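Hi Y.,

Following your request, here is the sequence exactly as I used it, all 318 residues.
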Amino acid sequence: MDISNKTIYYSGLNALRLDWPAEVCLKYGVLIVFNEGEENSNEVKYEVRVTRLKPGKDGQALFQIERVSDVFVNEILPDLIADRLAYAAGKVFYPLVITVDQNGGFQDIYNHAEILKRWPSVKKKIQDNFEGDLVESYIERMEKQLVNADSINLAFLNNDWFIHTFFKPVYKEYGQNHVTQSIYKFPIARGFNVEGYLTQEKLGTQTNSFGAIELIHDGTIVPLKDELYITNRANGNYEGYYLLHPKFKRIISVVSDFSYGEQEKAKVKVKITLIPENDREFDHDFELDTNVKGLPVTEMVVLDGPSKKGFWGRLLNN
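Below is the corresponding structure, written out as C-alpha coordinates. Let me know if you'd prefer a different format.
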Protein backbone atom coordinates (compact mmCIF):
# COMPACT_ATOMS: atom_id res chain seq x y z
CA MET A 1 0.00 0.00 0.00
CA ASP A 2 1.49 3.32 -1.09
CA ILE A 3 1.52 5.88 1.76
CA SER A 4 2.21 9.04 -0.24
CA ASN A 5 -0.05 12.01 0.53
CA LYS A 6 -1.62 10.32 3.56
CA THR A 7 -2.68 12.00 6.81
CA ILE A 8 -0.13 11.75 9.61
CA TYR A 9 -1.34 11.08 13.17
CA TYR A 10 1.00 12.50 15.81
CA SER A 11 0.78 11.84 19.54
CA GLY A 12 -0.02 14.54 22.12
CA LEU A 13 -0.20 18.08 20.75
CA ASN A 14 1.20 16.96 17.40
CA ALA A 15 4.47 15.85 18.94
CA LEU A 16 7.34 14.77 16.72
CA ARG A 17 9.21 11.98 18.55
CA LEU A 18 12.42 10.33 17.43
CA ASP A 19 12.61 6.52 17.30
CA TRP A 20 16.33 5.67 17.19
CA PRO A 21 17.28 2.60 19.27
CA ALA A 22 20.72 2.26 20.82
CA GLU A 23 23.51 0.89 18.59
CA VAL A 24 21.64 1.72 15.36
CA CYS A 25 23.94 3.70 13.05
CA LEU A 26 23.24 5.66 9.87
CA LYS A 27 25.66 7.12 7.34
CA TYR A 28 25.25 10.61 5.89
CA GLY A 29 26.89 12.70 3.22
CA VAL A 30 27.55 16.32 4.21
CA LEU A 31 28.03 19.23 1.79
CA ILE A 32 28.62 22.78 3.03
CA VAL A 33 28.81 25.57 0.44
CA PHE A 34 29.99 29.05 1.36
CA ASN A 35 28.80 31.96 -0.82
CA GLU A 36 27.34 29.72 -3.51
CA GLY A 37 27.47 31.26 -6.99
CA GLU A 38 29.93 33.96 -5.95
CA GLU A 39 33.54 34.45 -7.01
CA ASN A 40 34.70 33.55 -3.50
CA SER A 41 32.57 30.40 -3.30
CA ASN A 42 34.01 27.36 -1.49
CA GLU A 43 32.59 23.97 -0.60
CA VAL A 44 33.44 21.35 2.00
CA LYS A 45 32.38 17.73 1.59
CA TYR A 46 32.68 14.66 3.84
CA GLU A 47 30.79 11.65 5.18
CA VAL A 48 29.82 10.84 8.75
CA ARG A 49 28.36 7.88 10.60
CA VAL A 50 25.91 8.73 13.38
CA THR A 51 25.20 6.10 16.05
CA ARG A 52 22.72 6.22 18.90
CA LEU A 53 24.53 4.97 22.00
CA LYS A 54 23.19 3.56 25.24
CA PRO A 55 22.33 6.27 27.80
CA GLY A 56 25.19 7.86 29.72
CA LYS A 57 25.96 7.25 33.38
CA ASP A 58 23.43 9.91 34.39
CA GLY A 59 20.85 8.87 31.83
CA GLN A 60 21.93 11.32 29.12
CA ALA A 61 20.87 10.68 25.53
CA LEU A 62 24.12 10.04 23.62
CA PHE A 63 25.06 10.08 19.95
CA GLN A 64 28.43 9.24 18.41
CA ILE A 65 29.66 11.05 15.31
CA GLU A 66 32.44 9.52 13.23
CA ARG A 67 34.12 11.01 10.19
CA VAL A 68 34.22 8.06 7.79
CA SER A 69 35.82 9.83 4.83
CA ASP A 70 38.44 12.44 4.12
CA VAL A 71 37.33 16.07 4.14
CA PHE A 72 37.40 17.57 0.66
CA VAL A 73 37.63 21.29 0.00
CA ASN A 74 36.49 22.20 -3.51
CA GLU A 75 36.71 18.50 -4.48
CA ILE A 76 40.33 18.09 -3.38
CA LEU A 77 42.07 17.32 -0.10
CA PRO A 78 43.22 20.44 1.79
CA ASP A 79 46.44 21.70 0.21
CA LEU A 80 47.32 24.87 2.13
CA ILE A 81 49.55 24.18 5.12
CA ALA A 82 47.17 25.88 7.55
CA ASP A 83 44.23 23.83 6.25
CA ARG A 84 46.21 20.58 6.33
CA LEU A 85 47.34 21.33 9.87
CA ALA A 86 43.79 22.08 11.05
CA TYR A 87 42.52 18.90 9.40
CA ALA A 88 45.24 16.76 11.01
CA ALA A 89 44.69 18.26 14.47
CA GLY A 90 40.90 18.01 14.16
CA LYS A 91 41.10 14.22 13.98
CA VAL A 92 41.59 14.18 17.75
CA PHE A 93 37.87 14.88 18.23
CA TYR A 94 36.55 11.82 16.40
CA PRO A 95 34.77 9.64 17.27
CA LEU A 96 32.89 12.46 18.98
CA VAL A 97 30.22 11.61 21.56
CA ILE A 98 27.65 14.28 22.38
CA THR A 99 24.66 14.62 24.66
CA VAL A 100 21.35 15.91 23.32
CA ASP A 101 18.33 17.28 25.14
CA GLN A 102 14.84 15.77 25.12
CA ASN A 103 14.08 17.62 21.88
CA GLY A 104 17.17 16.31 20.06
CA GLY A 105 19.20 19.52 20.41
CA PHE A 106 22.98 19.47 20.97
CA GLN A 107 24.02 20.01 24.59
CA ASP A 108 27.59 18.99 25.42
CA ILE A 109 30.65 16.99 24.44
CA TYR A 110 30.49 13.77 26.48
CA ASN A 111 33.84 12.08 25.76
CA HIS A 112 36.24 14.86 26.73
CA ALA A 113 38.47 12.42 28.65
CA GLU A 114 38.82 10.17 25.58
CA ILE A 115 39.73 13.15 23.41
CA LEU A 116 42.52 14.08 25.83
CA LYS A 117 43.86 10.52 25.72
CA ARG A 118 44.02 10.63 21.91
CA TRP A 119 45.95 13.88 21.76
CA PRO A 120 49.52 12.55 22.34
CA SER A 121 49.34 10.23 19.31
CA VAL A 122 47.68 12.90 17.14
CA LYS A 123 50.29 15.42 18.26
CA LYS A 124 53.15 13.04 17.36
CA LYS A 125 51.75 12.55 13.85
CA ILE A 126 51.53 16.31 13.42
CA GLN A 127 55.12 16.80 14.54
CA ASP A 128 56.27 13.99 12.23
CA ASN A 129 54.54 15.51 9.18
CA PHE A 130 54.84 19.26 9.78
CA GLU A 131 57.58 21.58 10.97
CA GLY A 132 58.13 25.24 11.70
CA ASP A 133 56.99 27.94 14.11
CA LEU A 134 53.41 27.81 12.79
CA VAL A 135 53.13 24.17 13.83
CA GLU A 136 54.42 24.71 17.37
CA SER A 137 52.18 27.74 17.81
CA TYR A 138 49.16 25.75 16.59
CA ILE A 139 49.93 22.84 18.93
CA GLU A 140 50.25 25.23 21.88
CA ARG A 141 46.85 26.82 21.14
CA MET A 142 45.28 23.40 20.59
CA GLU A 143 46.54 22.09 23.93
CA LYS A 144 45.16 25.11 25.77
CA GLN A 145 41.75 24.48 24.23
CA LEU A 146 41.73 20.73 24.78
CA VAL A 147 42.19 20.89 28.54
CA ASN A 148 39.04 22.99 28.88
CA ALA A 149 35.84 21.04 28.17
CA ASP A 150 33.82 24.27 27.99
CA SER A 151 36.20 25.59 25.34
CA ILE A 152 35.61 22.52 23.17
CA ASN A 153 31.85 22.77 23.62
CA LEU A 154 31.94 26.41 22.60
CA ALA A 155 34.10 25.66 19.56
CA PHE A 156 31.60 23.11 18.24
CA LEU A 157 28.65 25.32 19.14
CA ASN A 158 30.17 28.28 17.30
CA ASN A 159 31.63 26.55 14.26
CA ASP A 160 30.22 23.11 13.46
CA TRP A 161 27.57 23.37 10.73
CA PHE A 162 26.75 19.65 10.80
CA ILE A 163 25.90 19.67 14.50
CA HIS A 164 23.91 22.90 14.15
CA THR A 165 21.83 21.42 11.35
CA PHE A 166 21.47 17.75 12.30
CA PHE A 167 21.12 18.12 16.07
CA LYS A 168 18.55 20.88 16.11
CA PRO A 169 15.77 20.57 18.75
CA VAL A 170 12.99 19.61 16.34
CA TYR A 171 11.55 16.66 18.30
CA LYS A 172 8.85 18.46 20.25
CA GLU A 173 5.18 19.42 20.18
CA TYR A 174 4.01 21.60 17.28
CA GLY A 175 0.60 22.52 18.66
CA GLN A 176 -2.88 22.30 17.28
CA ASN A 177 -1.95 23.99 13.99
CA HIS A 178 1.31 22.03 13.45
CA VAL A 179 3.29 25.30 13.72
CA THR A 180 5.63 26.63 16.40
CA GLN A 181 8.40 29.25 16.69
CA SER A 182 11.96 29.19 18.02
CA ILE A 183 15.01 31.44 17.98
CA TYR A 184 18.08 29.69 16.57
CA LYS A 185 21.67 30.89 16.46
CA PHE A 186 24.04 29.83 13.70
CA PRO A 187 27.80 30.21 13.09
CA ILE A 188 27.22 32.65 10.22
CA ALA A 189 26.08 35.35 12.67
CA ARG A 190 28.62 34.52 15.38
CA GLY A 191 30.05 37.58 17.07
CA PHE A 192 27.35 39.94 15.80
CA ASN A 193 24.73 41.76 17.86
CA VAL A 194 21.71 39.61 17.10
CA GLU A 195 19.34 37.55 19.20
CA GLY A 196 19.29 34.91 16.49
CA TYR A 197 16.92 33.84 13.72
CA LEU A 198 13.25 33.91 14.71
CA THR A 199 12.07 30.77 12.95
CA GLN A 200 8.62 29.51 12.09
CA GLU A 201 8.64 25.70 12.14
CA LYS A 202 5.86 24.00 10.18
CA LEU A 203 5.32 20.25 10.50
CA GLY A 204 3.65 18.44 7.61
CA THR A 205 0.13 17.11 8.15
CA GLN A 206 0.43 14.63 5.27
CA THR A 207 3.24 12.53 3.89
CA ASN A 208 4.65 14.00 0.71
CA SER A 209 4.66 12.46 -2.77
CA PHE A 210 7.14 9.72 -1.77
CA GLY A 211 5.86 9.03 1.72
CA ALA A 212 8.17 11.16 3.90
CA ILE A 213 7.34 13.76 6.56
CA GLU A 214 8.24 17.35 5.71
CA LEU A 215 9.42 19.90 8.27
CA ILE A 216 9.88 23.44 6.95
CA HIS A 217 11.79 26.24 8.70
CA ASP A 218 11.54 29.91 7.74
CA GLY A 219 13.57 32.35 9.83
CA THR A 220 14.57 36.02 9.94
CA ILE A 221 17.27 37.70 12.00
CA VAL A 222 16.15 39.37 15.21
CA PRO A 223 18.49 42.20 16.31
CA LEU A 224 19.28 42.95 19.93
CA LYS A 225 16.86 45.40 21.54
CA ASP A 226 19.37 48.26 21.54
CA GLU A 227 19.83 47.90 17.77
CA LEU A 228 16.16 47.78 16.80
CA TYR A 229 16.16 51.35 15.54
CA ILE A 230 19.52 51.38 13.76
CA THR A 231 18.90 52.07 10.07
CA ASN A 232 21.75 49.99 8.64
CA ARG A 233 21.58 47.07 11.02
CA ALA A 234 22.42 43.63 9.68
CA ASN A 235 19.72 41.36 8.35
CA GLY A 236 19.53 37.80 7.18
CA ASN A 237 17.35 34.78 6.54
CA TYR A 238 17.26 31.08 7.27
CA GLU A 239 15.35 28.45 5.30
CA GLY A 240 15.40 24.77 6.24
CA TYR A 241 13.75 21.79 4.57
CA TYR A 242 13.81 18.50 6.48
CA LEU A 243 12.64 15.13 5.18
CA LEU A 244 11.94 12.60 7.94
CA HIS A 245 11.17 8.90 7.92
CA PRO A 246 7.40 8.40 8.44
CA LYS A 247 7.83 5.72 11.11
CA PHE A 248 11.14 6.45 12.86
CA LYS A 249 11.25 10.25 12.32
CA ARG A 250 14.98 9.99 11.61
CA ILE A 251 16.45 12.50 9.17
CA ILE A 252 16.52 11.36 5.55
CA SER A 253 17.80 14.65 4.18
CA VAL A 254 18.15 18.32 5.09
CA VAL A 255 18.75 21.35 2.91
CA SER A 256 19.33 24.60 4.81
CA ASP A 257 20.20 28.07 3.52
CA PHE A 258 21.57 30.81 5.76
CA SER A 259 22.39 34.45 5.00
CA TYR A 260 23.72 37.31 7.07
CA GLY A 261 25.03 40.78 6.33
CA GLU A 262 24.32 44.45 5.81
CA GLN A 263 25.07 45.29 2.16
CA GLU A 264 27.02 42.25 0.95
CA LYS A 265 25.51 39.14 2.51
CA ALA A 266 27.47 36.07 3.50
CA LYS A 267 25.68 32.87 2.50
CA VAL A 268 25.96 29.26 3.61
CA LYS A 269 24.11 26.23 2.27
CA VAL A 270 24.16 22.94 4.18
CA LYS A 271 23.03 19.65 2.63
CA ILE A 272 22.89 16.44 4.64
CA THR A 273 21.68 13.28 2.91
CA LEU A 274 21.33 9.74 4.15
CA ILE A 275 23.53 7.21 2.34
CA PRO A 276 21.67 3.87 2.20
CA GLU A 277 23.81 0.90 3.20
CA ASN A 278 23.14 -2.66 2.01
CA ASP A 279 20.01 -1.43 0.18
CA ARG A 280 18.07 -1.45 3.42
CA GLU A 281 15.45 0.70 5.09
CA PHE A 282 15.49 3.84 2.96
CA ASP A 283 16.23 2.55 -0.52
CA HIS A 284 12.70 1.42 -1.27
CA ASP A 285 9.12 2.62 -0.93
CA PHE A 286 7.59 3.31 2.43
CA GLU A 287 4.70 0.85 2.66
CA LEU A 288 2.26 -0.43 5.24
CA ASP A 289 2.72 -3.96 6.47
CA THR A 290 0.15 -5.87 4.44
CA ASN A 291 -0.75 -7.96 7.50
CA VAL A 292 -1.80 -4.90 9.48
CA LYS A 293 -4.96 -2.98 8.69
CA GLY A 294 -6.01 0.52 9.57
CA LEU A 295 -2.85 1.74 11.27
CA PRO A 296 -2.02 5.47 11.22
CA VAL A 297 1.21 6.64 9.64
CA THR A 298 2.95 6.72 13.03
CA GLU A 299 2.60 2.92 13.18
CA MET A 300 3.84 2.27 9.66
CA VAL A 301 6.55 -0.26 8.98
CA VAL A 302 8.77 -0.53 5.96
CA LEU A 303 8.78 -3.67 3.89
CA ASP A 304 12.16 -5.00 2.83
CA GLY A 305 10.90 -6.46 -0.44
CA PRO A 306 11.49 -4.94 -3.88
CA SER A 307 9.36 -2.02 -5.03
CA LYS A 308 8.38 -0.62 -8.38
CA LYS A 309 10.13 2.66 -7.71
CA GLY A 310 12.44 3.21 -4.75
CA PHE A 311 12.54 6.17 -2.41
CA TRP A 312 15.68 7.63 -3.99
CA GLY A 313 14.15 7.31 -7.44
CA ARG A 314 11.21 9.35 -6.28
CA LEU A 315 13.38 11.87 -4.44
CA LEU A 316 15.53 12.45 -7.49
CA ASN A 317 12.64 12.10 -9.93
CA ASN A 318 14.35 9.24 -11.74
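The longest strand covers residues 42-52.

Thanks again,
Q.
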